[in-house]
Design a protein that fits this description.
By secondary structure, the protein is mainly α. The protein has 13 helices and no strands. The chain has one domain. Helix 2 crosses helix 3.
């Protein structure tokens, strides 16, 4: 175990810093462009909001999601945006995240089709027919989500907390009822986000001396997506490492050791998590005030026992 950890550490320490810095920049641009797409949804569902506020909240949620989980990151987004738009219900803001996820699912399905065409998906044990069924299921789920959101948003509100929550989610999903406008104002940002994400992955692959072709990049994307099905970030990262280690050599045709692939995934995940956590701290400090983090530290730090009075 010690030798394995030492090998991973040496591979990560020997990565060229230029490629790592460029990969971090592409990752940040990935989150910024996706935040711009979410801003377009919030503006259409909730009213005017400054783009820098929406992008900052989105980036903070991405950083929190790297430490907690994707759903934990969404909760951070709802809380922070709620401070910027106190007149909006949390359920409406949650609905905007659902609407954003619907478009991202569509873009992800297109990426999956490309992965199948380039032979990356079978390396993860997904034959062509099964992959097609997954794509069909994703598209069907998005269509059903749109229909449910449209029906819930169109019905008059009735008493009851559950009904109010559903009504709010439906109002947040209202942009899905205008697919043409959604395709013009949201999908381009999400496609650009995927492009920056792929560019960042390619930079990290090059930094660790691995093949950085399109098939390898798509394989990493698939491994990350599969790993995120688990609720906790550490378990998610471990699942992604296992999937990538098993499928990298068959997908790329390159003889690469499992230690190198693991070092790449661990190193990339660690850098992105650290950078995301730092950005989250910065955004929370600016949103909640400069004393917010200090107050949290005072509440959480261990307290020294009181000294006994001198005799």
């Amino acid at each position: 175990m010690a030798s394995w950890v030492e090998g991973v550490w040496s591979a990560a320490a020997g990565a060229p810093p230029g490629w790592l810095a460029l990969g971090l920049l592409c990752h940040l641009l990935n989150q910024v462009t996706r935040g711009c797409g979410w801003c377009a949804i919030v503006r259409r569902a909730c009213g005017d909001v400054r783009r820098r506020d929406a992008v900052g909240v989105w980036v903070a949620g991405a950083g929190a999601g790297g430490v907690l989980s994707a759903r934990g990151g969404d909760a951070v987004r709802v809380l922070l945006m709620g401070r910027r738009m106190p007149e909006e219900r949390a359920s409406v803001l949650t609905g905007t995240l659902v609407a954003e996820a619907a478009g991202d699912t569509l873009v992800g399905a297109a990426v999956l089709v490309l992965a199948v065409a380039l032979g990356a998906a079978p390396a993860l044990g997904l034959p062509g027919l099964e992959t097609s069924l997954w794509i069909a299921a994703a598209v069907t789920a998005s269509a059903l989500l749109w229909l449910v959101a449209r029906r819930v948003g169109a019905r008059p509100a009735r008493p009851g907390r559950a009904r109010r929550v559903l009504s709010g989610v439906g109002a947040g999903c209202a942009p899905l009822a205008r697919p043409g406008e959604y395709a013009r104002c949201v999908l381009p940002w999400q496609v650009a986000s995927r492009g920056f994400r792929g560019a960042g992955i390619a930079c990290f692959l090059a930094a660790f001396g691995l093949p950085a072709g399109v098939a390898a990049v798509l394989l990493v994307m698939l491994a990350q997506t599969g790993g995120r099905l688990l609720p906790l970030a550490p378990a998610s990262a471990a699942a992604a490492v296992g999937m990538l280690t098993a499928g990298f050599a068959p997908a790329t045709g390159a003889a690469v050791s499992a230690g190198t692939v693991t070092a790449f995934m661990v190193g990339m995940s660690g850098l992105l998590t650290a950078a995301g956590a730092a950005l989250t701290v910065a955004v929370v400090s600016l949103t909640a005030g400069p004393g917010a983090l200090a107050a949290l530290w005072r509440a959480a730090r261990p307290r020294r026992p009181a000294r006994a009075p001198a005799a």
